User: Fold MIA40 protein from Cardinalis cardinalis.
Amino acid sequence: EGKDRIIFATKEDHETPSSAELVADDPDDPYEEQGLILPNGDINWNCPCLGGMASGPCGEQFKSAFSCFHYSSEEIKGSDCVDQFRAMQECMQKYPDLYPQEDENDEKSSKDLEAASMEASAAKEEEGSS
Assistant:
């Protein structure tokens, strides 16, 4: 009646070896997850590891920057890709809801500055009172 089907197996059913044959993985299977880099060296834009960055409003800028970096042959890899990464960053800043900016460093630096200024004022008060 439902989605499940119950099958009863006897002891004799389990005594016979299975006749199932395993199919070897096909490296050219387009439906098989290949990882970030395909066997031919191309970038797999459908890789879940990209977190959907290759699609969306800044997908083309991301692809341009990532491709440039991947294929870069500069001494410092990707140093020839600054313009592409800048374009990607500018695009992402237009969509803060889709691409949240990590402000951990900004928050940390402002807390560090605040703590430093409090320490400096406490030091000045001690100097003035002695």
